[in-house]
Amino acid sequence: MLISEAIEEFVREHKTRGSRPATIGFYRGTLTRLLAPCLDQDVASALTPFTINRAMARDVKAATLASWDSALRAFCNWLEGVGLLVKNPFQGRRRPKVRREPKRVLSPEEMTKLLQAAKKNARCKARNVALLALMLDTGLRAGEVASLKLTSIDWEMGIVRVEDGKTGMRFVTVGLKALRCLKRYITHERKGSSLYLFLTPRRTPMNARLISQLVLRISKRAGLGWELRAHRLRHSYACGYLSGGGDLFSLMRQLGHTKLDTTAAYLHWTIDSLQKANVQYSPMSRIQIPR
User: Fold this and answer.
1) Alpha-carbon span 237 to 235, nearest angstrom
2) pLDDT grade, residue 282 (50/70/90)?
């Protein structure tokens, strides 16, 4: 079987498993791009450790390299499982190292400045405030926010149903402040017959790209002094949740993570939290230095 045909069979199996379109698109796009020079070659003869080395030998970020490794590894494991590959080129191969560097997240003061800056657009003031308040109060991804519909909100329970999440459908809790912002947007400003929650001034649904661009524009207007990307709102929520005394298990459910290790990375994700932990637990804090 040719590699191009094997990729399609691999993707087809993912469809039968019920994998999300985004996951299927990631596998098809990544595998086709990385294995482009040998798509018309036979699987058994073309997929060798040297082929993998050439596919991965690109100047990209460590996180990107790790995601490529994951896609190629999953593909080769599947090929071996269905009997198309006798020797797996990933056998004995180590995964790329991904170094987690402390990153900046929003402080409560910066969150306030961001919400104040969101009000400066008179035409979409209520929408912008509601969107930011929701993201800062739930940790939803931009794509998840874009997929929300009017029927996604349970006003009495204070719950939002996320149907198009990265890991499938889940329920997240929303606080009273964010709910009030959402109600104000829906009752005072939102116009149009679309089922989707957040709309553009032209009354069409916002997508993840538009939400990301909006967050960046508002952050510049707020004068934060650094570029704020939409996904950093999610990180800000997670770090704020833990520093406020929240537990890892409930945060894992709120964020939609499938592994606790992914959520645990937020424990010491910022310079601030690392410094506080060091001050509290370092042995130097318990000894007296001789004069």
Assistant:
1) 5
2) confident
